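To close the section, here is one more complete example, presented without commentary so you can practise reading it yourself. The ligand is uracil.
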Amino acid sequence: MGADEAIGDATFDRLGAIAAFPQVISAPRREPGRPPLPDGASPPPRPAALSAAQSARTLAAAARTLAELQAAIAAFDGCALKTTATNLVFADGTPQARIMLVGEAPGADEDRLGKPFVGVSGQLLDRMLAWIGLDRSKIYITNILPWRPPGNRAPTSAEIALCLPFVERHIELVDPALLVLLGATAARTLLGTTEGIMKLRGRWLSYASPGLSRPVPVLATFHPAYLLRSPSQKRESWRDLLSIKNKIKIGI
Ligand code: URA
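Output:
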């Protein structure tokens, strides 16, 4: 996973501990509460356990409200990111707002506070929104991943695929009039493409999902963290922001 935070005063060799008890690993498995099987007999088939992906889909589909979805994600143990994160980062802003933004994944500040976009890139995002008269009372914001990848590494495609049902259901429950995707990960994931953000940004596209009554206009733009690293791209972001402002002005 990569180590970036200490969780104890002393190191503990977990692999060494396993090696010291080989019999635990190699002991024949027996169904708890059942008598041992005669030699050579195979155990009766058990109902297949839900895979993590199936379980994410089932939990997400069953959520009827945002509170239920948040509880479902909190109860989901299929994504290893949960074990290294401090907090679940669900959303911020106003669910009734007609504008929904989706970023990539929480960073260290978001993980600590349990809210998306509260660190430096969030502060830039707030300034960008203010340029077009928006603030968090007028938007709703979430991420593709609800848990911080350790050390802020890029999310893997497996983690994204696993958590996709949650963000898709999130969008259905908010039912926004307009979607803004911040950065390549959000854009590629929700637009189902491998195209780069340079090509995707600035174009109004359409986002459809079975639980939405109609396709939603969607615009991809640069992630604020990228703008912090490449300030010369702010000119393009400004264009995207004006495009969003226009869309709002004409009633979306
Ligand atoms: N970057 C993101 O994509 N999301 C956050 O919440 C914070 C930083």
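Once you have examined the tokens, check your reading against these statements. Residues 20-33 have pLDDT under 50 and may be disordered. The chain is about 40% helix and 10% strand.
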